[in-house]
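Lecture notes, part 5. Sequence design as translation. It can be helpful to think of inverse folding as translation between two languages: the language of shapes and the language of residues. The source text, in structure tokens, appears below.
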């Protein structure tokens, strides 16, 4: 298997890199936000996304009939990783998850309404699956959607809806058929985020991000805003999660942090002795650098290859997410060990090594093995679907 980019792919990578250097803007590109740079949550960051749209770089892998270019997913990967490397907003939920799911399952009305807006960077989404009693077990959602004339009436609560405080539209799973099995009773809806009856309450997390809980009181959703078929919501959500597990968890921040740690170890001293001479530190760094290279191989060829052709890749996505998010935490954890006690000084303080970058990154990466399905869930998927092990093994 060839892990290098082809000459055409490399040409595109160089073009994107040059464009990002020319369009560098410290207000938009901020490494200290760690993985949450991916959100287009300020006017400046939304303007930046519109520039990407003008370049024709949004939805490159989408079918031509929906405004895409039908080119290999690896180009979208190259773009997204470059954006992430520069701490810029990324293709995210619109292009990477919701657009692709609408193309596969949405009605003509929803495709016509949303796909052009996504390609023009005119819309941001929030995703509402999790609830107080539905996280890993997403099929247990209880948000109630009752059938009423010409639509649905939604009541209940969502938890952990990242982006709800700035998004325009809400992509929400709800229980439409309580008499059916829990997997078959769910449907998916699109709701304007400023809809009367929606109340959003912020929840700051240990990392750099804020997520939200959202309360629904008699939220009316017209029939046309049901996504796909009634009762097929769980299938669509499972596919959308397969896409999320590689689109929203980019590799570049891990590579950046690994490079930073290597540079630190080359020049730092501990108790007067160069860190680079410490046998344990050398072993740890060699392992991290090797695993980072493995993660790169997994993402460039394994996930991109499986994702081409439009079908969301279940097993490679879980393998990629499990490997990279645990590696991401390991890099920060080891960095705190190597920098010693000063490494725990809060980010931004002058006394902190590397201005506390690893202290901040450590907190930010804590969320990565939870959001988009926890590590245990990825292991269950790999064990059951890939290895054929029984459910209660
Ligand atoms: C920062 C952040 C942002 C998020 N953003 C969103 C969002 O935008 N939209 C959204 O819908 N959700 C979002 N989530 C929610 C996230 O998807 C859930 O937190 C996640 O699915 C885990 O669910 P839970 O928190 O209810 O934990 P639980 O499901 O209660 O799990 C608790 C622990 O038990 C383990 N566990 C559970 N079931 C099993 C099992 N069958 N086998 C083995 N171990 C198991 C879990 O892995 C975990 O370690 C976000 C979460 C975070 C932290």
């Amino acid at each position: 298997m060839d892990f290098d980019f082809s000459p055409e792919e490399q040409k595109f990578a160089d073009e994107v890199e040059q464009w990002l250097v020319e369009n560098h803007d410290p207000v938009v590109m901020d490494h200290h936000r760690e993985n949450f740079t991916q959100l287009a949550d300020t006017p400046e960051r939304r303007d930046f996304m519109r520039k990407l749209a003008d370049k024709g770089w949004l939805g490159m892998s989408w079918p031509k009939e929906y405004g895409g270019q039908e080119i290999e997913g690896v180009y979208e990967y190259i773009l997204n990783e470059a954006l992430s490397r520069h701490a810029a907003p990324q293709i995210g939920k619109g292009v990477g998850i919701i657009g692709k799911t609408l193309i596969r399952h949405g009605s003509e009305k929803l495709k016509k309404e949303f796909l052009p807006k996504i390609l023009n960077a005119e819309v941001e989404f929030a995703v509402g699956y999790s609830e107080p009693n539905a996280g890993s077990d997403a099929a247990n959602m209880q948000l109630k959607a009752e059938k009423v004339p010409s639509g649905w009436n939604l009541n209940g609560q969502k938890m952990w809806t990242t982006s709800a405080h700035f998004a325009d539209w809400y992509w929400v799973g709800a229980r439409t058929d309580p008499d059916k099995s829990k997997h078959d009773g769910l449907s998916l809806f699109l709701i304007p985020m400023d809809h009367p009856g929606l109340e959003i309450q912020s929840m700051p997390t240990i990392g750099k991000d804020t997520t939200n809980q959202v309360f629904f009181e008699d939220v009316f959703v017209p029939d046309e805003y049901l996504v796909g078929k009634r009762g097929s919501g769980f299938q669509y959500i499972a596919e959308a999660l397969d896409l999320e597990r590689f689109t929203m968890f980019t590799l570049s921040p891990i590579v950046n942090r690994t490079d930073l740690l290597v540079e630190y170890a080359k020049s730092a001293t501990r108790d007067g002795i160069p860190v680079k001479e410490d046998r344990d530190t050398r072993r740890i760094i060699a392992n991290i650098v090797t695993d980072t290279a493995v993660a790169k191989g997994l993402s460039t060829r394994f996930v991109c290859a499986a994702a081409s052709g439009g079908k969301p890749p279940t097993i490679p996505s879980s393998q990629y997410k499990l490997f990279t998010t645990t590696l991401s935490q390991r890099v920060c954890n080891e960095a705190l060990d190597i920098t010693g006690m000063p490494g725990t000084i809060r980010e931004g303080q002058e006394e902190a090594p590397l201005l506390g970058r690893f202290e901040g990154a450590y907190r930010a990466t804590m969320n990565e093995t939870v959001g988009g399905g926890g590590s245990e869930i990825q292991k269950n998927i790999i064990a059951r679907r890939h290895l054929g092990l029984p459910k209660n093994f």
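The translated text above is only one of many valid answers, since several sequences can fold into similar shapes. The beta strands are 125-128, 144-148, 151-158, 169-175, 186-192, 198-204, 210-222, 226-227, 269-270, 273-274.
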